[in-house]
From TrEMBL, chain A:
<keyword id="KW-0067">ATP-binding</keyword>
<dbReference type="GO" id="GO:0006282">
    <property type="term" value="P:regulation of DNA repair"/>
</dbReference>
<dbReference type="GO" id="GO:0005634">
    <property type="term" value="C:nucleus"/>
</dbReference>
<dbReference type="GO" id="GO:0003682">
    <property type="term" value="F:chromatin binding"/>
</dbReference>
<dbReference type="InterPro" id="IPR027417">
    <property type="entry name" value="P-loop_NTPase"/>
</dbReference>
<keyword id="KW-0547">Nucleotide-binding</keyword>
<keyword id="KW-0131">Cell cycle</keyword>
<keyword id="KW-0539">Nucleus</keyword>
<keyword id="KW-0227">DNA damage</keyword>
UniProtKB/TrEMBL annotation, chain B:
<dbReference type="GO" id="GO:0003677">
    <property type="term" value="F:DNA binding"/>
</dbReference>
<dbReference type="GO" id="GO:0006261">
    <property type="term" value="P:DNA-templated DNA replication"/>
</dbReference>
<dbReference type="Pfam" id="PF22534">
    <property type="entry name" value="RFC_C"/>
</dbReference>
<feature type="domain" description="AAA+ ATPase">
    <location>
        <begin position="33"/>
        <end position="192"/>
    </location>
</feature>
<keyword id="KW-0539">Nucleus</keyword>
<dbReference type="InterPro" id="IPR050238">
    <property type="entry name" value="DNA_Rep/Repair_Clamp_Loader"/>
</dbReference>
<comment type="function">
    <text>May be involved in DNA replication and thus regulate cell proliferation.</text>
</comment>
<comment type="subunit">
    <text>Heterotetramer of subunits RFC2, RFC3, RFC4 and RFC5 that can form a complex with RFC1.</text>
</comment>
<dbReference type="InterPro" id="IPR003593">
    <property type="entry name" value="AAA+_ATPase"/>
</dbReference>
Length: 626, 360
């Protein structure tokens, strides 16, 4: 309620804010009386909370006043150190240059040629897509018009609006009208008439989320028309992680319509480091180079994340003090009792700590994990020290140590499901076996068969429903893990002569298509059988497919010439068409996305595709079980 | 109407191939009650024909008025509700269904339908209590659980219904069920019998059938009467008047398997393995059951193998066939067999190259 009041009546809002401010000051005084300097951190947190509340309720003037009250409360560094000129951008110069030239070209040619006015920027979150656009546009001296995605309507808000007579508009509708407007009326800088001669760049930062086919279609149509007929240069930003199946389709559609595409890569650790050092200098806080190094590496190319991590780090002065410049981190963090309690003593303690506190969670895409398993990189010699529990294996069972984490760890990082991992391995592993090594293929095939048996037996037992839900779930889980582990380790062990690594594409398992297709085919046959019901007693389905089908095919082609058969010609309908492997139903079309597996670039989005598939597959399973 | 159905014997008297069995069945039924029956024998030997004729013998022509329906059963177990859909074929006196189509939930079907039938017990014209017959096909494909529950329900409701079970291999039916039934083995018809049937049909259709062609059809049908009649009809469509050395079409999928096998023989490499896999996928898409593919693969392989290697390959075939029943993804297991045969061919080739006696 407070919020709406503040919005609607400034007077009340001001009064409210004044009261809020005084409350804050009182709190501050009490706090500072009670709490000693050790709890510096705590008070700072409170300030920040207050600060935040100010931002939402009050606006800038009030905030500054409060800031004075509270002392050294800061902005978020991410906002504070937003790049303002080209030099400050951490994005690779070439990319910036490309954006720059694209925009300049538009302005030069806009009078001549009005097509191809849309640029699509893709990339993971936090690589500076919008920052680049902002800086470049201001560098050119154009004006930026930004589509700001409306915040989602809350239920209360909706009720309130409904009472006050404002009807609800869906976000997609809003976007549509916006696009319509900018298509029809190119210069919309109504607020700043004096600079209407300036060039205008449209920026669409976030496409509305669509759900369902109809909405998808509307969005697509809307974007398509935008690409075709936009009159001023428009930049659309698409964050890659949100690239689900439909997202990818959208991208394709945009490109097909003539939009130019520019993909941003994650920012390199070095340029993140540079930015962080600059911020440290300006903030006058001494952070050791090791920490900066760690933050930069742990951020995974996400500069926004890195800056926030740095700010977080600087909030904890204790930690900084305890970190002498010269001593390596692994020792120092052990020496700090406060840290050790929070982290169990692990071998990779420092790494663990960092990833917990400020690194991004390290996840692998499924394709990355598969690539690791399939390429099967190993050391080239046995380690000299084999430890106590080691015993000599026969030579045929000896393998060099793996150049990767334990396969189970990789699996858990990739959140992979056992059966789908086995499917992927089965589909692709043959490409990675050298041509002579048929023995390897035997080993691998037998292990995959083992893994299938393992994963299948447990699902059947689970379905018998004798055990309680929880224990069933657990036992299934364990068996799935075991099955995945057997499949992966079998592939790693079996492939004893891996090919030298080169570029391979990874196919999605054909098995899934086959399952679907044979299910369709089965229904088709059965329905045909039901049409001709009078003639056949129920015979086994296998008999139908193995014996009747082909005979009917032979008979069907000439049936019309035989008068004896005409009365029952419905039975002899020739096979409409064989569903062959080549043809795919529509839903399959997108999943062919072959993906480069290797060390360099992995398309994260593919894992989302996979999710969709898995869910689709399970639905299909249910149908088959009926 | 297909000849297979057109010339199917309707009564026990008409039955030509297993006339002795038909005779016995007739006697059995004439005493008004009959035990549970289990018919087993290879496919195309006439089990279903006998069963239909038997039903007609029991209930008269009323048993022939059948309707096909897709029934949905709603079953409540302790914790959840299951809905199962299954095609049934029923007359007033009997119900026929294929419970293994329900997948691993087959046991519910078996229990539920028998209970339902027991509830509505028919009364015959004289007011005597009569019984209904339940025909279950492909009992050997039922899961062990389903077979056990079948046994229990069989005992409990034996007063009100009789079961006729039908399967290919009696060894996959549990002992308990087998011992509660009268087991009737239906042999595959001999080639002479098949030729006899074909000539009978030819006479009815007023066709001239050369004896050579009839024998070849019989031989190629692998002692499967249904298939023999189907391919006879196919021959009729393709070419008439018949000639002595007319081509008898083999099943397309069998040709395809033969192709696959020659692929395997010609080259052994991971790449070839992949192309073989694609071909097997194509068979699977066309709903050829994986067990059948595996069986056919082995029999084709046997033709090409040395006698020393036969043992090895058939061992692995049995191993992977078992695996296939345990697992879910049949292609994994078929591939296991393929790789094994690959290795065997390679070792054979090596042995030939070295001119040394093959070592095992």
């Amino acid at each position: 309620m407070c919020e709406t009041r503040v919005e609607h009546s400034e007077e009340i809002g001001n009064r409210f804010v004044r009261r809020l401010g005084s409350v804050a000051i009182i709190i501050h005084k009490q706090v500072s009386k009670l709490i000693l300097e050790d709890f510096n951190l705590f008070t700072k947190d409170i300030y920040e909370d207050l600060d935040l509340s100010n931002v939402t309720y009050v606006g800038k003037k009030r905030k500054q006043q409060l800031c004075l009250d509270c002392g050294d409360v800061k902005d978020l560094w991410v906002d504070k150190y937003k790049p303002r000129c080209l030099a400050e951008l951490a994005v690779h110069k070439k990319k910036v240059g490309e954006v720059n030239t694209w925009l300049e070209e538009r302005f030069r040619m806009s009078k001549v040629n009005s097509c191809n006015n849309v640029l699509v920027l893709t990339g993971p979150a936090g690589v500076g897509k919008s920052a680049t656009v902002h800086v470049v546009v201001s560098h050119i001296g154009a004006e930026l018009c930004e589509w700001q995605t409306p915040t989602p309507t809350l239920w209360q808000e909706y009720n309130y609006n409904a009472n006050s007579g404002i009807s609800y508009i869906s976000k997609l509708d809003e976007f549509e009208t916006f696009v319509e407007k900018i298509r029809k009326y190119p210069s919309i800088s109504s607020s700043s008439r004096e600079c209407s001669k300036k060039n205008i760049v449209m920026l669409i930062d976030d496409l509305p989320v669509t759900n369902g086919r109809a909405a998808d279609g509307r969005l697509r149509h809307c974007l398509h028309s935008l690409v075709i007929s936009s009159q001023c240069p428009t930049v659309i930003l698409i964050t890659e992680s949100s690239k689900t199946q439909s997202g990818e389709e959208l991208l394709l559609l945009l490109e097909k319509a003539g939009a130019s595409k520019l993909a941003f890569n994650p920012i390199t650790a070095n340029s993140i480091k540079k930015t962080l050092v600059r911020i440290c200098r300006e903030e006058m806080c001494s952070v050791t180079p090791e920490w900066i190094d760690h933050i930069a590496k742990g951020s995974g190319g996400d500069i926004r994340h890195a800056i926030t991590a740095l700010q977080y780090l600087c909030l904890r002065p204790n930690l900084l003090v305890s970190l002498p410049l010269s001593i390596p981190i692994s020792c120092s963090s052990k020496g700090e009792p406060g840290v050790v309690t929070s982290v169990q003593s692990f071998e990779g303690l420092d790494e663990k700590f960092f990833s917990l506190s400020m690194g991004r969670d390290e996840t692998l895409s499924l394709f990355h994990a598969l690539g690791k398993f399939l390429h099967n990189k190993r050391d080239t010699e046995q380690p000299a020290d084999l430890g106590q529990g080691y015993f000599q294996l026969q030579e045929m069972f000896m393998r060099y140590p793996l150049k990767m984490d334990a396969p189970e760890k990789i699996l858990s990082q990739a959140y992979a499901e056992a059966s789908s991992v086995a499917d992927f391995l089965h589909e692709n592993v043959l490409d990675f076996i050298s041509d002579e090594a048929v023995d390897d293929a035997v080993t691998i095939a037998s292990y995959l068969s083992d893994s299938d048996c393992l994963s299948a037996t447990l699902t059947i037992r689970g379905s018998s429903g004798s055990s309680s839900i929880l224990s069933r779930h657990d036992s299934k889980n364990v068996s799935q893990q075991v099955a995945a582990s057997v499949a992966v380790r079998g592939v790693l062990f079996g492939n004893s002569h891996p090919l030298p690594s080169r570029w391979h594409s990874i196919r999605s398992p054909k098995l899934w298509q086959i399952k679907q297709l044979s299910f369709i085919k089965k229904n088709e046959i059965l329905s045909k059988w039901c049409e001709a019901q009078c003639c056949f007693s129920i015979c086994g389905f296998s008999v139908m497919t193995t014996e009747y089908q082909y005979a009917l095919q032979l008979l069907g082609s000439k049936v019309s010439s035989l008068s004896a058969h005409t009365q029952n010609s419905q039975i002899y309908k020739p096979e409409q068409q064989d569903i062959r492997m080549g043809e795919q139903p529509d839903w399959m079309a997108t999943d062919e996305s072959t993906t480069q597996v290797g060390t360099s670039s992995i398309r994260q989005a593919s894992i989302y595709d996979l999710d969709i598939h898995i869910s689709g597959e399970s639905e299909e399973d249910e149908i088959e079980e009926w | 109407m297909l000849w297979v159905d057109k010339y199917r014997p309707k009564t026990l008297d008409q039955i030509a191939v297993h006339d002795d069995i038909a005779e016995n069945l007739k006697k059995l039924v004439s005493e008004h009650d009959c035990p549970h029956l289990l018919f087993y024998g290879p496919s195309g030997s006439g089990k279903k024909t006998l069963i239909m004729a038997l039903l007609r013998e029991m209930f008269g022509s009323a048993a022939e008025k059948v309707k096909i329906e897709n029934k949905t059963w709603k079953i409540e177990t302790g914790t959840r509700k299951i809905e199962l859909e299954l095609t049934t074929l029923s007359s007033t006196h009997h119900v026929e269904l294929n419970p293994s189509d329900a997948g691993f939930q087959d046991r519910y079907i078996v229990q539920e339908i028998i209970k339902e039938m027991a509830k509505s017990r028919p009364i015959d014209v004289n007011g005597n209590k009569s019984y209904k017959v339940l025909v279950l096909n492909e009992v050997d494909k039922l899961s062990k659980e389903a077979q056990h529950s079948l046994r229990r329900t069989m005992e409990k409701y034996s007063a009100s219904c009789r079961l006729i079970l039908c399967c290919n291999s009696a060894s996959r039916v549990i002992e308990a069920v087998r011992s509660r039934c009268l087991n009737i083995r239906i042999n595959a018809p001999t080639n002479e019998q098949i030729v006899g049937v074909l000539r009978h049909i030819a006479k009815k259709e007023h066709l001239e059938l050369p004896i050579g062609l009839a024998t070849r059809i019989a031989v190629q049908s692998n002692r499967n009467l249904r298939r023999a009649i189907l391919s006879f009809e196919a021959c009729r469509v393709q070419q008439y008047p018949f000639t002595e050395n007319q081509v008898v079409q083999t099943m397309d999928w069998e040709q395809y398997v033969a192709e696959i096998v020659s692929d395997i023989v010609n080259e052994q490499s991971p790449k070839r393995l992949y192309s073989v896999r694609l071909k097997i996928y194509e068979l699977l898409v066309n709903c050829i059951p994986p067990e059948v593919i595996l069986k056919k693969l082995v029999s084709e392989l046997m033709k090409k193998l040395d006698s020393e290697l036969k043992h090895e390959v058939s061992h692995w075939a049995a191993y992977y066939e078992h695996r296939m029943r345990l697992g879910q993804k049949s292609i994994f297991h078929i591939e296991g067999l393929n790789t094994c045969s690959f290795v065997n061919f390679i070792s054979k080739a090596l042995a030939n190259c070295n001119f040394s006696p093959p070592s095992n």
